[in-house]
Amino acid sequence: MRLPWNGWTAWMAAGGLLLLAASGATEAGSAPAHPPSNGVPWPEGWQEWATVAVSHRTDNGTLRVILGNDAAMAAIREGRTNPWPDGAALAKVVWKAAPSADWPAAEVPEKLVHAEFMVKDSSRWAETGGWGWARWVGEEAAPYDEGPAACVACHEPVRDRDLVFTRPAPFPR
Fold it and tell me: Element (H or E) spanning 155, and its range?
């Protein structure tokens, strides 16, 4: 039996493809490209988030850029970062630092170490300070699933700042 190819059929086919794409499946029946870390799903589109700040850890030779989603950036502009509002998400992308081939006094990102995320949902993650904690390691983005306890313990010194180390960088107006 041949089905007519008309506007309705085209819309149904397009809708099916959109549903498949939205599911995160790379092939029919396959798992999403990036499995969750500590119960936090891979934040789609995070590579397009705005810059909050940068940091350089001299103890382990890494460079970091801290990014924020739209909710985090709105909270920063409005001065609502202690506590951060539900829906805010911060990403920290970490690379090993290396001297620049073009300017040896400068350090540039070399090898990706990991991408870390804090996602604020004070009811869902009440037991971990209101944050979901996630990390994907290396270029292959392998989920780090050792649980959020190590993250919370590391962030304990800044509990009075809603467990966030990063202070947004000032930008000219």
Answer: helix 149-155
